[in-house]
Amino acid sequence: MAKIAHQIYLLRHGEVAAPSALYGKTDVPLSPRGWQNMEAQCARLSQLTQVVSSPLQRCQHFARQLSEQRNLTLQVLDEMQECDFGKWDGVAFDDIPQSAWAELHAFWQAPASNPLTDAEPLTVMYQRVSTGWQKLAKQLASTQTPQTLLLICHGGVIRLLLAHLLNLDWRNPALYSQWQIGYASLSKFTLPATNHAQAIIHYVGMPAEHEI
Q1: pLDDT score, position 195
Q2: pLDDT category, 212, cuts 50, 70, 90?
């Protein structure tokens, strides 16, 4: 009897229709280009059986349309939303005072040890994302047929989820400064449906087709 393995795709939301900023909890919409790039990625995924999404509209609005088009159930998981960047969440970079840039640079250099003012600590986010993944993994473990799941979420969530799957140190600054997870990029791993199975990573951060 062949072993069951589930295919998991991670799609970061596309470009947003807003000025450059740290967008975490701030609920900004996709730009037309962002939507088109996500459509281009999903055109590659012909055999989806499940769609899961962050609750934020830059993920959920696209996920809802996709699930309706393909007659799939949409599951929205609060645990898969982006980090709350606190005081500077959603504030356009051009509007941030010069006095705050030292704090921002320190955060970008080592986000785990330099949280932003009033922001969600990275340790809390890591536990949240890990809990969300455990929910999905439990659901997958309960099915007897191979699943192809698409999770539409955020760059920070994808980095932490992959760190969790690979047992990497999620506090390592290189995960955030050197691991490119661009807008509308696609990552894939396989999860064998056996106890204590390890995920097999196929690729990370593949850009939309016309941007390659």
Answers
A1: 67
A2: very low
- Structural domains in the chain plus CATH codes: 5-211 (3.40.50.1240)
d(CA 186, CA 118): 31
The pTM of the full predicted model, rounded to 2 decimals, is 0.95
**Rounded to whole angstroms, how far apart are CA atoms 161 and 191?**
13
Q: Given the structure tokens 């809390």, which residue do they identify?
A: 124
pLDDT at 197: 72
Tokens coding 146 = 């191979």
Residue found under tokens 């920070």: 156
Instruction: Compute the distance between CA of residue 92 and CA of residue 84 in angstroms, rounded to an integer.
Output: 15
Closest C-alpha among 39, 50, 37 to residue 9: 50
